[in-house]
Amino acid sequence: MVSVARFTALLDPPVYIVTAAADGQRAGCLVGFASQSSLDPVRFVVWLSKVNHTYRVARHAPFLGVHLLHRDRTEVARLFGGETGDRVDKFARARWEPRGEGVPVLGDACAWFIGRVEERADWGDHVGFCLTPVDGSAESLPRGSLLTLGDVTDLRPGHPAP
């Protein structure tokens, strides 16, 4: 029998930066758990750690931003994955602009969408946010151009895993 850890070690999915705005706060974090979950209607789920500052803001946000980075943008991934919004204003060190509902959209993203939060699923140490895309943009990139989990394996998270 293959263990889940050995199974997932074979994967190298893209990493995402998820952003949120609610109650006068902004937040964003690096996410490794995300996927399209429906074709019709189109739905996408991002999983946020409960220990993360972004999760606490996202709980009150009606929309979230989901961003992909080009492989050469590791410094942005390190900012959003290696720092915590509890102590650092990540947006003071990033290029961004507020879009619909005030959701921060990162200027260094090669693709992004804003999604309306339809549902939340709490099945452990992460909560899934089911999103319906309402706005977005994506460059045309060759395969292999996106920043992946394998590119940031040496990153120490701003909040250690529970």
Strand content: 35-45%
The CATH class designation is Mainly Beta
CATH architecture: Roll
Structural class: mainly beta
Between the first and last Cα atoms, what is the distance in angstroms? 27 Å
Overall spatial form: globular
N to C succession of SSEs: HEEEEHEHEEEE
Instruction: Indicate the multimeric state.
Output: single chain
Secondary structure layout plus pairing:
Blueprint: H1 4-9, E1 16-22, E2 25-31, E3 34-39, E4 42-49, H2 53-58, E5 63-69, H3 74-82, E6 96-98, E7 104-106, E8 109-122, E9 126-138
Antiparallel strand pairs: 1-2, 1-5, 3-4, 4-9, 5-8, 6-7, 8-9
Protein described:
There is one protein chain. This protein is mainly beta and 162 residues long. It has a single domain (4-137), classed as Pnp Oxidase, Chain A (Roll), CATH 2.30.110. The protein contains three helices and nine strands. The protein has helices spanning 4-9, 53-58, 74-82; strands spanning 16-22, 25-31, 34-39, 42-49, 63-69, 96-98, 104-106, 109-122, 126-138. The strands form two sheets. A seven-stranded antiparallel sheet has the order 2-1-5-8-9-4-3. Strands 6-7 form a two-stranded antiparallel ribbon. Strand 8 (109-122) and strand 9 (126-138) form a beta hairpin. The longest helix has 9 residues, at 74-82. It starts with a helix and ends in a 24-residue tail after the last strand.
